[in-house]
Amino acid sequence: MVLKDKVAIVTGAGSGYGEGIARRFATEGARVVLVDVDAVAAGRVADAINAGPDAMRAVPFAADVADDDAVQAAVQCALDRFGAVDIVVNNAGISHPTKSALKITDAEFDAVFAVNAKPVLLFARHAVPHMRARGQGGVFITVASTGAVRPRPGMVVYNGSKAAAVTMSKTLALELARDRIRVNTICPVAGETPMLDKYMKGDPDANREMLRATIPLGRLATPADVAGSALYFASDDGAFVTGVTMEVDGGRCV
Q: EC (predicted)?
């Protein structure tokens, strides 16, 4: 119960890493607003959390995290339902199909940066004033990618958007430190999430084997791996940690 009575907003909470983080936070005592563009997926995860011993700890909220009004509404939902915002996890992300940089379209560039980088700014814009007013600090966690620190070919815009999210998070860490608001980033390697098959061409099993071969610990990341790291950043165990980029990658970036 290391997050007892904390209120967290987790984006992309309808599946993958976001679902893992939301479930872990709830089991550790947090009340969670599950933000996802897919209302059905967010509702499914909320129902699963609320069906257990953590009843009424989760609220689904459908929103496009690239839209300022939607982000403001998500923050307001947390305030209306739970009275505060202590933690924001910017996890929602999209990619483009693996392809040459010369074949990336303007629409792909705009969409990927809008979802992967812009919400770091938008959630700060709307959540920080409430954190400051309460005077109890706060936590922002950005889920980026190893692509931000060890980019691979064929993913130029995705890698760039995640690198932008990392640098924005580090800058916010400096700007918000005087308010005791900490900002850290998690960079997972490719993981067992729905996004993997959606954007990688070819045979899924072959793709996974190819990726596993590049990871010293011999497997892909799981939602539980990322959730454990997020819990550290969100908890008092990480009270003196800000501006950090943690690679959760089984040694991939060494």
A: 1.1.1.100
